[in-house]
Amino acid sequence: MTASRENRESLRDPKTVLVVDDHELVRNLMVRVLEAAGLKAVAVGTGLDAIELVRRDDGQLGCVVQDLSMPEMRGEEVIRQLNEIRPGLPIVAFSAQDEHSAAERLAGLDVAGYEQKPFQIQAMVELIRGLIQRS
């Protein structure tokens, strides 16, 4: 899969997408898909790693894509801490849970979007691209 020149040029100042998922296969696939779409991406396997990366961020992160079903630290707790560390950082949550259940878990958190697995890759890419362009 290669990114078209138009897709790469659509972001004048591309920022990095942080992918947070405990499954290595999912992380690697998401990074490849995002990079093929002309976006920069980095992935971590734990919520603690995501929190540390956001704390150290110098403004390069434009969006976080966070799995809700994580061992050790639940996805909503990671999101809560990311909201505190960097208010306004766009976060897209995803999970195999239905939207209603996810909405209950995400109540009160600043989340820019939710995608249910299995999600449409192009829809996820467009959502992320739009969030980065606005940030």
CATH level-1 class:
Alpha Beta
| Extended strand count | 5
C-alpha termini separation = 27 Å
The order of strands across the largest sheet is 2-1-3-4-5
Over all CA atoms, what is the radius of gyration?
14 Å
**Percentage of residues assigned to helices:** 40-55%
User: Uncertain spans, ≥5 residues at pLDDT below 50?
Assistant: 1-12
Biggest pleated sheet:
5 strands, parallel
Q: What quaternary form is this?
A: single chain
Mean pLDDT: 88
Task: Furnish the topology, listing elements before pairings.
Layout: H1 5-9, E1 16-20, H2 24-36, E2 40-44, H3 47-56, E3 61-67, H4 75-85, E4 91-95, H5 99-106, E5 113-116, H6 121-134
Parallel strand pairs: 1-2, 1-3, 3-4, 4-5
Helix pairs in contact: 3-4
Pfam families: Response_reg
Protein name: Putative transcriptional regulatory protein TcrX
Keywords: Phosphoprotein
